[in-house]
Amino acid sequence: MGTTKPHKVTLEKEKETLLITLYAKALDSHSKNSILNDKKAAELMDLMDYNFNKITDFGNHIMVIRAKQFDTWVKNFLETSPNTTVLNLGCGLDTRVSRIMPSPRVKWYDVDFPEVIEIRKEFYTNQNGYKMIASSITELDWLGQIPNDNPAVIIAEGVLEYLTEEQVKVLFNRLTNHFPSGQLIFDVMNTFAINSGKENLKETTGAEHKWMVDEIKTVDKLNTQWKRINKLSIFKSPYIRKLPLKDRFIYTALCLIPSFRNMMTLLVYKF
Q: What Gene Ontology molecular-function terms does this entry list (predicted)?
């Protein structure tokens, strides 16, 4: 890491939400039975000059389980395709590259808004096999910086909800047209989930979710080049079993309600 002084953070709207996921992962790292074991997230949080007390009520367990499940899927892909390009969209201060520690044969790109990458550069540096790209993922030109000679595994963790469906469709089609083959790993939220947290999210950060998915078949139709190979309710992830007994009981009971059970779905498509 490149600094030991507190870093003042003045992000807003969807950019500020990166601190919600950082907080969740840092909190989990201090747990007796940590799921993600993300010590680096805790280190980064300790170096943030930010009032984390304002973002303590955003489903920390869910974000940690999502990250762990995505890590597992990425590792599985890298095991079968070692010469891979990894594209982490809307990376925020995510430490996935440190958690996975990819081989030198992997080319890893973290992409986010210029303001976010400026903060990220306090803790990470561009080097052989790893590069940060400062751009909104909906801009047209950033993808041209990435070679298209290898398969790609593309991650969008807690990002696409802030786009419109049309923006998501355009993005997906640009990605599948750019790379010869690969997988897209991302999450979607249903109307119940988004409406339940809308006021808290807007009041806390000013951000708003836009893309709501109640039928996964609508996602299937966004791209003609891909095929869905995995669909997993966040509450059906095997990592739920690592939660404390009380939390597992609560989630099990609430999963009897369909709208709750399908609040967040984790998806993998191959192309």
A: methyltransferase activity
